[in-house]
Amino acid sequence: MHAHYLRSLGLAMATGIILNCVLSGLEGTTDWIREESSSWSEEITHLSHLATEYRPLGSMAMILCLRIAWMGAVSPGAKREIEDLLFDYDKACLGSPAQSLSCDMTRAMRRFTLQDL
After folding, report:
1. Burial class (CB within 10 angstroms; exposed 0-12, middle 13-18, buried 19+) of 88
2. Separate counts of helices (H) and strands (E) for the chain
3. Cα(73)–Cα(81) distance, rounded to whole angstroms?
4. DSSP at 96
5. pLDDT at 113
6. What residues have CB less than 8 Å from 101, skipping those under 6 apart?
7. Is the Cβ–Cβ distance between 23 and 78 less than 8 Å?
8. Model-level pTM?
């Protein structure tokens, strides 16, 4: 039950981050969008620490949530922490860590903010 709660909450906040990215692409980035996405990103990071006990199968959704949390993170330190967590999750769940996380996630963020149309 706890693993289901972590997945559901993480996916809900990840959806919010995606919607904020699209909103910032349409209307421009505002302080409240940045603060809200950053807050959700920090919460997803906290949830991923809690979900490590359910690896590999019980926390596979956290890989997706962490990738989206990277898009919502503002500080380079938060982005680095998320990249480290993703490395660990990819290694534990998929068997091999992703090679170019920053490049892939930057490209995804540009798509969600409607910069690459």
Report:
1. middle
2. 5, 0
3. 10
4. S
5. 67
6. 70, 83, 86, 87
7. no
8. 0.82
Q: Rounded to whole angstroms, how far apart are CA atoms 17 and 98? A: 22
Per-residue pLDDT of the chain (117 residues; tens, 9 = 90+): 688 899 899 999 999 999 998 888 888 778 899 999 999 999 999 999 998 888 777 778 888 899 899 989 999 999 999 988 888 887 776 666 666 666 666 777 676 666 655
Peptide bond into 97 cis (omega under 30): no
Q: Residues for the chain: how many in total? A: 117
Is residue 78 within 8 Å of residue 71, measured between CB atoms? no
Enter the DSSP assignment of 93.
I
Task: In whole angstroms, give the CA distance from residue 93 to residue 116.
Answer: 30
